[in-house]
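look at this fold:
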Amino acid sequence: MTILAARSVAQPIAARTLNTPLMIGGLTLDVPVVLAPMAGITNTAFRRLCREYGAGLYVSEMITSRALVERTPESMRLIRHHESETTRSIQLYGVDPKTVSEAVTMLVAEDRADHIDLNFGCPVPKVTRKGGGAALPWKIGLFRDIVEGAVRAAGDIPLTIKMRKGIDSDHLTYLEAGRVAAGAGVSSIALHARTAAEFYSGTADWSAITALKSAITDVPILGNGDIWSADDAIRMVQETGADGVVVGRGCLGRPWLFGDLSAAFKGESRKAEPSLGEVAAAFKRHAELLVEFFDGDEDRACRDIRKHVAWYFKGYAVGGDLRASLATVQSLAQLDDLLGTLDWTQPYPGADAEGQRGRAGTPKRPSLPDRWLDSRELQESFRAELVGAELHHSGG
């Protein structure tokens, strides 16, 4: 594990109920922090790396329920957990109540998960134009059938959901969907405080998290959106009353953020300020874990780590040629050589290394099936459309 340099924060965060463990069904989280599922990111390698810095619930990449029921090689590989992952958390995506229930039943019967999350937040047009993702809760009956069936199939395993505010500002679904999910017996509800139309643009509407928390008092509510630092997480909890936070893009290239979060929720006044050498060591560790995740396939691991280069080295004085070389690295030996050319003593650059990460995109009119918004109930003609919605995309 890499130990990062830390500094004292001028004014320590007051520990209100921040120190109180979060209960999600039978799970106890000492720190109320969840790693958001991100396709192509939150595989076993990244989850293990983040866990080395701080406590939390680390959720898998989004896995298509149909592919899991069909036991495709890729889905079976994605549900694997390392022995160090003591709480095995899997997120499923699906549009058919029967298929989702079968996928949950499989995970439970074969003892493959300790926590299962359902995704209703994906804003990707390829999904929403088929009625899936953030578009699905508009069909409230279909949403109810999926959640109720999944909760029954999960039994004693905590079943949670993650969703968005709705399709756009004129078609909000989160309050009604939240009430339906709570009534179905979910163990927690996470809200990304944006609509599908907003994608990841602008500023997350934390007031929606406040409204959901006020409307639902018997199920933990987790807030998601614009958590770039531990200070942001604490501020979200204090401003909205959320029971915990879900962190996505803010941890890209910054696995030590989970150490900051653990400290903040315990009322400790410290924050990681990694030198360039410490960043390089974490980057290399990530690559090594990817080799293990890909069953020793070093080439595949190097192709995967390339997309993390800009995130890890954001704000540091690393030349364009070296960044380009890292973004085309082909072996761990080459990676070692490239990292060896860095000035490992270069200090933390401060604000330049912080703030927003990942692509925000721009607001856009959501792609939906023709006449999808005409009714809240699912017409028979849409069922064929939904079959095409089970694609593997990032989870919203």
